[in-house]
Amino acid sequence: MSTTLIEVRPAKTADAAAVAATHDEAWRSAYQGIIPGAELERLINRRGPAWWDSAIRKGSRVSVLCFGDQVAGYANYGRNRARSLQFDGEIYELYLRPEFQGLGFGRRLFAAAKRDLVQSGLKTLVIWALSDNEPATEFYRNLGGRMVARSSERFGPKSLDKVAFAWTN
Question: What is the pLDDT of residues 150-165, one digit of tens each?
Answer without folding.
Answer: 999 999 899 999 999 9
